[in-house]
Write the structure tokens for this entry.
Amino acid sequence: MIVITNPFAVEDEIEIIHSLFDEGLFLLHIRKSEFSKIEMAQFLHKIKLEFRCKLVLHDYHDLAEDFGINRFHFSEKNRISGDSSARFSNPYSYSTSTHSIEDFNSLANFEYAFLSPVFKSISKENYCPEKDLFEEVKSRTNSNTKVVALGGIDCQNLHQVFENGFDDAALLGSIWMNKNPLNQFKLCQKIALSY
């Protein structure tokens, strides 16, 4: 399971993040697009050293070495504009975002890619699927990149993700807009581990 940080500050966010990792969170995407570089560094500094290898940076990739991070995410916009092309090198891992199976199938050099939105978004108003991504993923030809479902996923519909050909799922709104994020994560983790 992957969790993406809420773009905006959340009460007790760092404590929740540590609890998620303690419960088996595989990767945490740090997506804080409003942060300055200094704010990002301060945020990363608060995360325990033992968990930093499980962080994925969306912005300020140049901070990675200082914090022991070796995973980078590129937005669809950055990938298409070529902002990611010169950066591929070992020992780093890369992920990106896609919104159609055609884009996903054309990827190279990415460990995994989000394909979204699968369901109506929990955190983004009026962000709904334009296509049935469960149908789309049936025409997947890229077997070198894992396909990760994103958008509107919670413990009520998570089983559909795994039953319809996705390799994994990413959670955002179902975690950060929940009164008990850790409980929600545990329920989702239990479902994911059953597949």
User: Anything to note?
Assistant: The longest strand covers residues 93-98.
